Amino acid sequence: MNQIPIFHHLPKCGGTSVLKLLADWFKLIPDYRQGWATNHPARLNLDALTPEHCLCGHFELDGFHLDQRYPGLLENPRFWAFSFIRDPLEVKISLFRYEMKNNIGNKARTIEKHLSNRKNYLAGVLGVGQDDFKTLLDKYAFIGVLEKSDISVEILAWLLGKNKTALPWENKTFDGGKRSQDALPKHLIEQFEAENELDYAIYNYAIDRLNALKDAYQQRHAESRMSS
């Protein structure tokens, strides 16, 4: 592949594990803010990047979203943007654990209060609304789904021309199968789903896109086996 990969590392979506995988394939070029500060380092010189590099960052704050920090990048055929996403409720539970562990915010807050704050968190970090989320997501060459990590990584390797491998799990709270939300009461889950419809629309659209790629991937492999 002659394009330059850009990994949009959505927070709490398995990105740490994905980065470990990408480090075996590319020279990673990080573009993250320092801790929880709102200031970012200077913009990187995109002209200096080659297909051997992989730019990666959260791009989660308003004014610093990927298409704001690097205007035109998502439309530029020189770059190959991709990301991974996760079940919205699992994202918020993971974020709760992270903030509690690192003494961020109110330590005494409960999971119930946490889930009722920052509604549609994924939409916020992407900087999209109901009317434009599909337009933005369609600018990404690939969006993996953490709950479908095996096929996601397999397709990603295929698209990038890399050897097929498994995702090296870095976050012990998720191993590819267990769901933290299974321990929550049903009414809390239903309330969260009702209050975060946009996040679920984004997540389900990403699943639809992945399934379409899966069909193309499996068809290509079937044709390859028949011709060999």
Order of helices and strands: EHEEHEHHHHEHHH
Spans where pLDDT lies below 50 across 5 or more residues: none
CATH topology, which one?
Rossmann fold
* Structural class by helix and strand composition: alpha/beta
* Total tally of structural domains: 1
The amount of helix comes to 40-55%
| Gross geometry | globular
What's the helix and strand layout?
Blueprint lengths: L3 E5 L6 H9 L3 E4 L22 E5 L8 H4 L9 E7 L2 H14 L9 H6 L4 H6 L6 H5 L4 E4 L3 H12 L25 H10 L1 H31 L1
Parallel strand pairs: 1-3, 1-4, 2-3, 4-5
Explain what you see.
- The chain is α/β, with parallel strands linked by helices.
- The chain has a single domain (4-227), classed as Rossmann fold, CATH 3.40.50.300.
- It contains nine helices and five strands.
- The protein has a five-stranded parallel β-sheet with strand order 2-3-1-4-5.
- Helix 7 packs across helix 9 (197-227).
- The longest helix has 31 residues, at 197-227.
